Amino acid sequence: MPAAPSSVVDASEVALSTRSLSLWYGPRQVLSEISLDVPARRITALIGPSGCGKSSLLRCLNRLNDEIAEARVAGGVRVGDTDAYAKDTLVHDLRRRVGMVFQKPNPFPLSIHDNVAYGLRLLGVRRRRELDERIEAALRFAALWDEVATRLDDSALELSLGQQQRLVIARAIAVEPEILLLDEPASALDPAATLRFEELLHELAQRYTLLLVTHNMQQAARVSHFSAFLHGGRLIEFGDTDALFTNPGQRQTEDFITGRYG
Ligand SMILES: Nc1ncnc2c1ncn2[C@@H]1O[C@H](COP(=O)(O)OP(=O)(O)OP(=O)(O)O)[C@@H](O)[C@H]1O
User: Which SUPFAM superfamilies did the record assign (predicted)?
Assistant: First the structure.
């Protein structure tokens, strides 16, 4: 694939890339020719006004838009060496490699243990000991183990929202993804849980590539290494977060981050 015009990183560090990615819902085009290289093991924030296509872009990356009958995609998405839209790409494998966390925590109505075991069992992990070890490792990495170790058989729905969001992260990382797509994952959390969650994002970025949609500019500036600004379904600017926030290259970016619109 040719290099993205907005490329800011060495190709060896790219975990996921899009080339001229466009998306339509029926006749309406909502993404136009997006070419983006997402750096590996870094946090990239996707920012932009409501309706600019941030969630739609995330859903193209693990092919969740396949579930929307009228959605049509053009252009390319690569995850590592895999062409996400190739005929022989297995969608369930792609979604294991590219996990997703939504705004509202969505634990299954199962026990805490079985939520994290879910994907592992689908992968064929059956032995109790291996399951338990991997569940503990995932819960520890998601900074939830200490709070749930003695109540793994309780319903996940009894956890607080902040705990549920960390459980969903544990569920996602238990199957060893490469990339986590996070769609406003902290917006339902209170300020203390949000701070805690942001610390967790930093921990996660040591091992995984994170792509984070956020409406909160302070959060984008605080937690992300790179930022991509979308407007009207187009990628307007992509770069190092500090540089983009202090010295935006485009007028539209400046207007957005200074709160002049959106
Ligand atoms: N399933 C769908 N069918 C048709 N149109 C859709 C669908 N989902 C989103 N859209 C439209 O696509 C455009 C982009 O929406 P999207 O949710 O991706 O934007 P966003 O930047 O994530 O917005 P927000 O910040 O408000 O969450 C919007 O105009 C929206 O109405």
Answer: P-loop containing nucleoside triphosphate hydrolases
Q: Compute, in angstroms, the gap from residue 113 CA to the centroid of ligand 1.
A: 34
Mutate which of 21, 22, 25, 46 for ligand 1? The one with the most ligand atoms within 8 Å of its CB, which is 25
pLDDT, tens digit, 9 for 90 and up, residues 14-57: 999 999 999 999 999 999 999 999 999 999 999 999 999 999 99
Q: Using CA atoms, how far apart are residues 227 and 248, in angstroms rounded to an integer? A: 11
> Could you tell me the pTM of the whole model?
0.93
Cα 154 to Cα 111, 112, 157, 168, 174, distances in angstroms: 5, 6, 8, 15, 19
Asked if 98 contacts 38 with a C-beta cutoff of 8 angstroms, the reply is no
- 3-state class of 21 per DSSP? strand
Domains of the chain and CATH, by start: 11-257 (3.40.50.300)
Instruction: For residue 43, list its beta bridge partners.
Output: 210
> Ligand 1: residues within 6 Å at CB?
25, 30, 48, 50-56, 68
* CB hemisphere CA count around 192 (13 angstroms): 3
Which residue has a Cα nearest atom 26 of ligand 1?
A: 50
Separation between Cα atoms, residue 161 and residue 149, nearest integer Å: 18
Closest to 231 (Cα-Cα) out of 74, 60, 76, 57: 57
CA–CA dist 19, 83 (Å, integer)? 11
The CB density around residue 14, as the number of other CB atoms within 10 Å, is 19
